[in-house]
Automatic annotation (TrEMBL):
Residues 10-352 form the Enoyl reductase (ER) domain. This is Alcohol dehydrogenase. One of its GO terms (molecular function) is zinc ion binding. It comes from Leisingera methylohalidivorans DSM 14336. Keywords: NADP, Oxidoreductase. Pfam families: ADH_N, ADH_zinc_N. PANTHER family: QUINONE OXIDOREDUCTASE PIG3, QUINONE OXIDOREDUCTASE PIG3-RELATED. InterPro entries: ADH-like_C, ADH-like_N, ER, GroES-like_sf, NAD(P)-bd_dom_sf, Quin_OxRdtase/zeta-crystal_CS. SUPFAM superfamilies: GroES-like (SSF50129), NAD(P)-binding Rossmann-fold domains (SSF51735). SMART domains: PKS_ER (SM00829).
Length: 354
């Protein structure tokens, strides 16, 4: 089969294009999926570059990090096994079923859930891995997955459109769930033009919250289509003044960086900050007096309960959320697609088509 194979941590040159890579064989409780499309995500970039290493304190650049540690270069803080096929957001048709997997799934269109679980202890975060990281993912013509971690999707959306959902929307819904965001809240979302940011806008609105999006002004028109109540520039010089009379009760952040202290300063007393990324820089400055004197709550969000994935699938099928597909590239052009992703050339999600 055709596959884009990651050979090690580093720059885009660490990807190798193969046209004769072995087709995976489904084991017990696994299905083989002919991939129709697979989305790109920050985790693909960060894992490839080694950005997750605690030795790295820079913003995500997409380039190699010479200082990346050998022992903690992945989201879970463990070394990665190479060669590896990345790609968490695989969508396609089941073409074979292993022992114990229902053969009636053959021919069904499915979406792969990002989290690879120990199904004897599925909510144990310490036993979780990620599709395309701890096992091979969807940057290939075929991939395999545990049948308990995929979902049949009944939708008129194309494979490319469906491939924009899993990672971004599960991440966003997990963040909002941990922050207990809902009606009566005003949610501030930095980086609203990105995949997770755009998902946060839609999902926070679905929960009945008032939504304030932050994005570069060149992308305001695209962000407006997602339905926020207010759009601000990406980094206002005076964020409090830009907000006017708005009272922010939740900040849902995947950006971090130099702007971070301003986000915390505008939270109302008793407000909640939830985070699942730091693309503008992972090391930030916090005045602990702001944290405790204002009774703030901070939550990190990475490994989500399995029901978050199935909830997102139901939102798709019920027409409650819609895709934000920016561009589709051939899988053989993954390097170009990832370069465009890193440069934020597009608003919304980029997918690759095998």
């Amino acid at each position: 089969m055709k596959a884009m194979v990651l050979t090690g941590h580093g720059g885009l040159d660490k990807y190798e294009w193969h046209q004769d890579w072995p087709v995976p064989q489904p084991g017990p409780m696994e299905v083989l999926i002919k991939v129709g499309a697979c989305g790109l995500n920050n985790t693909d970039v960060n894992t490839r570059s080694g950005w997750y290493s605690k030795s790295v304190n820079q913003a995500t650049t997409g380039g190699a990090f010479d200082e990346a540690g050998a022992e903690d270069p992945t989201w879970g803080g463990r070394p990665l096994t190479f060669p590896r096929i990345q790609g968490a957001d695989a969508v396609g048709a089941v073409v074979a079923a292993g022992e114990g997997a229902d053969p009636a799934l053959i021919g069904k269109r499915v979406m792969a859930g990002g989290w690879v679980r120990d199904w004897d202890d599925p909510e144990n975060k310490d036993k979780a891995g990620y599709f395309g990281s701890e096992c091979d993912g969807g940057f290939a013509e075929y991939t395999k997955a545990d049948v308990r971690g995929v979902a049949v999707v009944d939708s008129s959306f194309s494979d490319a459109e469906l491939a924009t959902f899993s990672c971004s929307y599960v991440t966003a819904e997990g963040m909002l769930s941990r922050a207990n965001a809902g009606a009566g809240d005003t949610v501030l979302i930095p980086g609203a033009s990105g995949g997770v940011g755009g998902a946060l806008v839609q999902l926070a609105k679905r929960r009945g919250a008032r939504v304030i999006a932050m994005a570069s002004e060149a992308k305001h028109a695209e962000v407006a289509a997602l339905g926020p109540d207010l759009i601000l520039p990406r980094a206002p010089e005076n964020l409090r003044a830009a907000l006017g009379e708005e009272k922010v009760t939740v900040v849902a952040d995947v950006v971090g960086g130099a702007q971070w202290p301003k986000l915390i300063e505008v939270l109302e007393r008793g407000g909640r900050y939830t985070c699942s990324g730091a693309i503008a820089g992972p090391v930030v400055e916090l005045d602990l007096r702001t944290f405790y004197l204002r009774d703030l709550t901070f939550t990190g969000s990475t490994v989500t309960p399995h029901h978050i994935f199935t909830d997102v699938v139901s939102y798709i099928e019920n027409g409650e959320i819609r895709p934000s597909l920016a561009a589709a590239y051939p899988l053989s052009d993954l390097k170009e697609a990832q370069a465009a992703f890193i440069a934020k050339k597009h608003t919304g999600k980029i997918v690759v088509i095998p």
